[in-house]
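Regression test attached.
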Amino acid sequence: MPGSSRTGGLLATAVAGAAGDEGAVARSVIECRDLSKTFVVLDGQSIWRVIFGGDSVKGFPALRNVTVQVRQGEFLGVLGRNGAGKSTLLRTLGGVYAPTSGTVRVAGLVSAIYELGMAGNELLTGHDFASRWLSLHGTGGRQINRLLSEIAEFAELGAYFDNPIYTYSAGMKARLFFSVATSLPGQIYLIDEVLSVGDEHFQTKCWRRLRERLAAGASGILATHDWTAVLKLCREACVLERGRIVDRGSSPAVVQRYLGLPQPRGDSAAFSPHLPSVYCALTEEDTTLSIPIDVKVTSPIWFACSVESFRQGIGWSHLLQVEPRPVASTPGLYDIQVAIPTLPLSPGEYSLNLFLSERGPEGTFVSVDVRSWAYGNDVALAVAGEPRESVTILPLRWRGRRSLS
Amino acid sequence: MQILGFDRADARRLVNFLKMGLRDRFLGSTLGLVWAIANPLLMMGIFTFVFAFVFRSRLPGAETSLSFVIWLISGYGPWLAISDSLATSTGAVTGNSGLVKNLAFKTELLPIAGSLMGLVPLAVSTCYLVALLVLSGTRPSLSWLAILPVLVLQFVFITGIGLCLAAVNVFVRDTAMVLPNVLMILLFSSPIFYPLSEFPKAVQGVLQFHPFHVIAEGYRQPLLYRAWPAPWSLAYLAVLSALALFGGLVFFRKLKGYFDARI
């Protein structure tokens, strides 16, 4: 793929870096610094200036000073509207476009899905397209046959796999292309706007495959305007706007700002400024979380909270939840004590989500202040202790028993 | 190890592109690859029929018209390869925009593979020619191998020109439209269809340096007259080829940074 010298040089630096950091931080596999990409604007005159090498030609800056880093095992979400430069960023990182200025380093083989358009002849059969793609990506001989049967199985094209691509529906093409482009395991994936293709069934499969690849150590970038995909797959995200990175941080926070969601203002009640940003607890110990709030009105204020965790490729899941209950109804400072006997969480970092609300006119709850990953301002719950088999520790026991029949 | 900026992986990819090009050209036709051989063969057959039986053309001083056909095809075969190479390599980048946009690789490989596609008609015409020679009673000779250096130089030369044309064609798509006409003019302006001696004396001096004439003679001398091509002509061709390839690569590599504005 993109020049062995690129890859080779990078591996060397990455190894040196890892040795220096004692391997504490996962090495970065995709990195670009101050990356700019300018497309020349060609008209009747400038074309000849380009061909015969005259003075410089006017350009359109598609990327301006973009700096991005992705560590091994992580997916970075790149959000942005049409024309923001997402595809240009991916193609430049993938080595299809040469950067105008700045540096790009990618350590490892790149599998890229820049567009669902087939890079090839529609007269080819799905089988031939796949084998061509594989051999263009440097796969040879026996491995091709094994991968081809995997692709055929994953794409679920059945007998159509041996029919020309022009007989395929759009969904079938997408399935073929996704299957082929993700067939090589354990690499770097540059994915542009494709997780929204196919039917529900195939989307589920796509997600499962990405999860498997992630679990096997793959890394990558997901460029999309589908923020739900970013929330599911990426711990971190950034927003591109007219070629510039205008926002970056944890995915939920970035998405929240990207969507411009209104944030509760905390007029009638709010979490106190003394609310810690991290709570610490021990696995299977009785735990009490003390949450300071400031109530400003004379009306019932309801409190709810949840403990959630993020897993790459799966998204957020609720682990513990407390339904809304009234905690105060007169102005003043309060401490809400959330007691969790024998904390059933294995060691790790969790997201503590806290909600203060009022009862609306129709009996609904109206948030007055929120600390949540969905707003990018959640509180961390750090749990220490001996590692356990599962995330939540429940008083369950199981054993296998031969059935009688 | 790198040669002219290409490494082993590029060589492997070049072979891939060659296979791809061959397949794609005849994709969808029932006979497929058979056409790669049938097309030039039919062309040679028509020429043989027309010039040997219809026009009964003769070379000055020759007894049979078959010898004219042999003379004609020994020059026209390489020409067919040249025009095939040039046409394929000119459209190689624009015609593979899907690859150029979605795969990180050295785009130079596309016109190079395109130019090498000319090997197929050349092989077919050479086999046809050898068959004709044997039929007309000529014994095969070792000197026939002298066409090999000419063949190599021809493809180096054409690859260089093809690289330039392919790069220009990205920006000025008219290149591919104009090319067949230019090729036609070149064909009739060079002593391929008529012997050099039929041209006016004044033009002959210039025409003998016509690269396509030099290439055609490089095939004719060994195959027809069992003679090595003139050393000066080989040297001349070698210099031209080196210049063309080097210039073509430099030109292409300079322009390919701008391809993304057009593809």
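Expected vs. actual: identical. The first helix of chain B runs from residue 8 to 25.
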